């Protein structure tokens, strides 16, 4: 289990506890003992408020289970922000910039968003360095991406340059060559019956779209097509 997966489990547990607390009914003021000096009109007023609160508690939620809720007018901004962030992290790992954008889309005030994200960073639930390392490893293994393509993806996710550089440092030249070869072999299997020139052109295009340069492309295609 990776560090990021462990952090996700922590986020899920934190969210579960938060939801349990949110489901606990709060005692209404009508349940509190009254003093002898209170007027007779006060219990009626408290009962009325209690009935209105009960109606609000019974009202069906417009948010489907598992979906983030918009920040309501009576919601605590940091509480709402924390709920949104935990749900996002439970679904998949995300960069701080992605989470900040998600909070902005839900109209969370900037100061509340920053405070929550800072606390998440302090406990390790938001960690762009770890996110970048995991992203590079998974995307190269599953999508056969070059370092150039990986850098572009991480930049679009708002990861800082230093974190990107450190994550890409784990990619060796042989790793790129193996990724390019695996991609070319996979694509070539669907091109049986085509002549070499057509295969070369199509495979070169596929490698170029994954960010591989002319040098590695020519080396890989010479090997793949000669062995075809």
From TrEMBL:
Q: Which residues form the RecX first three-helical domain?
A: 81-120
Compositional bias (Basic and acidic residues) at which positions? 1-10
Q: Where is this region: Disordered?
A: 1-79
One Pfam family it belongs to: RecX_HTH3
* Low complexity bias locations: 11-20
* Localization of this protein: Cytoplasm
The Gene Ontology biological process terms listed for this entry are:
regulation of DNA repair
Q: Which residues form the RecX third three-helical domain?
A: 174-221
Q: Where is the RecX second three-helical domain?
A: 127-168
Residue ranges with Basic residues bias? 49-59
Name the GO cellular-component terms.
cytoplasm
UniProt keywords, alphabetically: Cytoplasm
What is the stated purpose of this protein?
A: Modulates RecA activity.
Family assignment? Belongs to the RecX family.
| This protein's name | Regulatory protein RecX
**Species the sequence originates in:** Microlunatus soli
